[in-house]
Every structure is written in C-alpha cells, then in structure tokens.
Design a protein that fits this description.
Oligomer: single chain
Number of domains: 1
Strand content: 5-15%
Largest sheet: 5 strands, antiparallel
Structural class: alpha+beta
CATH class: Mainly Alpha
Number of strands: 5
CATH architecture: Up-down Bundle
C-alpha cells in the first residue's frame, strides 16, 4: 500500500512540475476585460510574466517580450521570482522522492536515510505549493480589486487569465503530494520504532534467561558442605 502511495506521489509530482512550468510560461495571467459602452470584442490582450500578446481581428497573435522588468507591476515582478523558485523546488522534490522510495537503489538498505530523504521531499513539495499559491493568489487579488475599483479606467481593467486557474490547481496537486509523502514517512517511522522496541524487549528477555540459567547451575555453599561431610 505504501509503495503504491509513493508511486502516486511520483506521478503527482511530475504533473506538478509540468503545471508549474506551464503557469510560468503562459502569457494568460491577465486578459483584457470586455466591459463598458465602447466595447471592442475584436481585440484581445494577454499579459504574462515574460511577455504580452495582442490579437486583432483577422490578425495572428503577436507577442512581445517585456523590455524591462521594472515596467511590470510589483505582483508580476514577485511572481517571476517565486514561480522560478517553485520549479526548482519541484525538481529537487522529485529527485528526493525517487531516492526515498523503497524500490530505489539509493542509500542502499539504509532505512533511516531513505526515511529522511522522503521527509525532505515532502517538505520541499510543501514549500513549492506555497511558492506557487502566493504569486497566483496575489495577482488574482490585484486583478479583482482593480476590476471593481471605480477609479481605474475601463481600458486598464483586466480579468483572471487561464494561467491563474491552472496555478491554483497545480498548487493543490503539490500540496496533496506533500501530504502523501509525509504520511508515508510517519508510517515508516512508527514501524521502525515498533521493530526497535520489539528487538530491545527480545534482547532483554534473552539476558534475563541467561541470568536464570547461570544462577540455576551455580551450586550453593550449603550443598558443597554436605558433600564434604
């Protein structure tokens, strides 16, 4: 059962890696909002972490990389760094998960080393879930706040893009993966403690039996005196 959970964690971790890379690369973090009296549905604007894309009627999508990071709002600047950190954390987590599984040859037969590796993988998955959730939620909060802010011009208002929804789903997958690995680690630790306790009790019983046998074979001084007489 635990081996199946570890395989499931590997699969979910790989899905989380694909999700974090897709969210980081997608330009659909903020999309144009079709509101107001002067509605122009034939134009569409996408804004991402690295570029913005513009499409007009009967014209292909044209994307342009940002000339400077400083022109981006604060939430998108922070999202760039956090999403890159999230990708690195997921890669490290996948490596540790592969080494911590029972069927892997990593750490040989060192159970304690594998348990520590599995716990580290769960911790890194938990951190990657947070580093994905924070920028996605921050950008989503800013988009919603500006959308309902009457002081913001209608042409500058945006809606939630597809990348944000994928980011929330990816963060949930990473969180589930972390819970699975930490659960497996707790089960392994409890099993090791039980085996250690059983071994300690068996050793204590063996010592007691040896003492009893030794005392039983030792003749008393009174018995020796009777034989002498």
């Amino acid at each position: 059962m635990r081996a199946n959970l570890e395989v499931l964690a590997l699969v979910l971790g790989f899905i989380g890696l694909v999700g974090t890379i897709a969210v980081t690369a997608m330009p659909m973090w903020r999309v144009s909002a079709f509101i107001g009296a002067n509605l122009i549905v034939m134009e569409e604007l996408w804004e991402g972490l690295w570029m913005d894309c513009y499409r007009q009627a009967n014209i292909r999508m044209q994307c342009k990389v940002y000339d400077s990071v400083l022109i981006l709002p604060l939430e998108l600047q922070a999202a760039r760094g956090l999403m890159c950190v999230s990708i690195v954390l997921v890669v490290i987590s996948l490596f540790f998960t592969g080494c911590g599984t029972k069927k892997s040859n990593c750490c040989d037969d060192n159970r304690k080393g594998k348990n520590i590796t599995l716990a580290l993988a769960g911790g890194f998955y938990l951190l990657s879930s947070l580093t994905t959730l924070i920028p996605v939620s921050w950008v989503g909060h800013t988009v919603i706040s500006n959308f309902y802010n009457p002081t913001v011009l209608e042409s500058q208002k945006r809606e939630l893009g597809m990348a944000l929804f994928i980011g929330w789903a990816t963060s949930g997958i990473l969180l589930i993966t972390a819970v699975i690995l930490l659960f497996s680690y707790s089960k392994r630790s409890s099993k090791e403690e039980e085996s250690y306790t059983d071994a300690h009790l068996m050793a204590a019983r063996d010592v007691q039996k040896e003492d009893i046998v030794y005392l039983g074979r030792t003749p008393s001084s009174f018995h020796k005196h009777q034989e002498y007489v």
